[in-house]
Input
Amino acid sequence: MRILAISCLVFAFAQPFIPGKVKTIQGEKAISIYIDNSFSMESTNKKGTLLENAKTLATEIVNTFNASDKFQLLTNDFEGKHQRFISKEEFVEQLNDVKISSATKSISDVIKRQQDFYKTLLQK
Output
């Protein structure tokens, strides 16, 4: 019984992973990037506005991935056009169109939106 109990403890701490059915998305990876485009992002620093800094960093992040990877852009506007995966080039185009908005969302709202998107995607 002791050996069984110790084996169960070891097994529990090992955190085994049992893969389930996984639907793949065309491309190698699926990446979601959130850009806060609220009024607070109009503030400036040495490099310009915070929104422009965020766009620059998002572009740098996207450029580290392969051309076959898919991207999702999320902003506080929760626009319908952001509810799909797009190519790297389309992502950069949409990113350049992001403007300051009066809409504000909490980070939990953004995470829920992203999780709902993945759920609907995996159900297809």
Remarks:
- The beta strands are 30-35, 44-45, 48-49, 70-75.
